[in-house]
Write a structure and sequence with these properties.
Radius of gyration: 18 Å
Helix content: over 70%
Strand content: under 5%
Number of domains: 1
Length: 275
């Protein structure tokens, strides 16, 4: 179990590291967020090919799989738009509206039971997101992209749960990478940045960290129960704060700190209810 926990911590550090590399591309090197989103999927697809099971290709005939892939495409594009202008920690905090969206959709669409205490904790987490975004009260408009990304992520999680019986995790991962690569290719290829060694390095790092983090996530969930590992998902917020401070010198303001505490606390408390 402890090995799985260690793998989970590494995975939850690698995913924000991939977004940090994407932010370096769009925010520092001037690459288009549209290129960053497409290149992440395209390179991730290439990296995933050795792990693709033989039955994965048949899933591409299912229109529901395409809907799931399109939602993921919009979500990753939106988060790259947010990262091009906003601090890493703020983007991740706003993005974590996703679990609440997934919880609500699972209750409304999938008819999963909604416990009153967990519903209350989801509202607390949503309040934390509002503290970070602060719509109409001095919050940055760029964070609305992160909220859209989190909303897409919540829909994606619910769709993944509904479609989990169609194929294994590696097959589903392959389909979302393949669909997003194809759908985003027209805009990604028309926004190619000027070639340089830093652009190539950060493009590769963005895709590799993201792909590696998601693969390790699958490995961890194969070694320990989800009830043990679920709270560790919120380590992404801590990693995002540390990376944002170390690389970009971004220090969250008081409202953002309060939001981070509410989001993380509500998430950990909600996850503990599954035990």
């Amino acid at each position: 179990m402890w090995r799985a926990v260690g793998i989970m911590f590494i995975a939850m550090s690698m995913i924000p590291a991939g977004d940090m590399a994407g932010k370096m591309l769009s925010g520092t090197l001037g690459a288009s967020p549209l290129f960053v989103a497409w290149s992440r999927f395209a390179l991730g697809l290439v990296m995933s090919l050795p792990f693709v099971p033989r039955d994965a290709w048949r899933l591409l005939r299912d229109p529901r799989i395409w809907g799931r892939g399109l939602v993921m495409s919009l979500g990753i594009t939106s988060i790259q738009m947010a990262l091009s202008t906003e601090p890493l920690a703020d983007v991740f905090a706003a993005f974590f509206i996703g679990p609440g969206i997934s919880y609500a959709l699972s209750a409304l669409v999938l008819r999963e039971p909604a416990r009153p205490l967990r519903s209350l904790l989801m509202f607390v987490g949503f309040a934390g997101v509002l503290l970070v975004v602060r719509p109409g009260l001095g919050g940055s408009p760029g964070l609305l992209w992160a909220v859209l990304a989190g909303t897409c992520y919540g829909v994606f999680l619910t769709a993944s749960r509904a479609l989990s019986g169609l194929g294994g995790p590696r097959a589903l991962l392959f389909t979302q990478l393949a669909i997003a690569t194809l759908v985003l290719a027209p805009i990604g290829l028309t926004h190619l940045p000027a070639p340089s060694l830093p652009v190539a390095g950060f493009t590769l790092a963005s895709a590799a960290f993201s792909m590696g983090g998601n693969l390790l996530l699958l490995v961890a969930y194969g070694r320990a129960r989800a009830t043990i590992l679920a709270p560790l998902v919120y380590f992404q917020l801590i990693a995002a704060v540390v990376l944002g401070w170390a690389v970009f010198g971004d220090v969250p303001d008081t409202f953002t700190w309060a939001g981070l505490v509410l989001i993380t606390g509500a998430g950990l408390a909600s996850a503990s209810l599954r035990r």
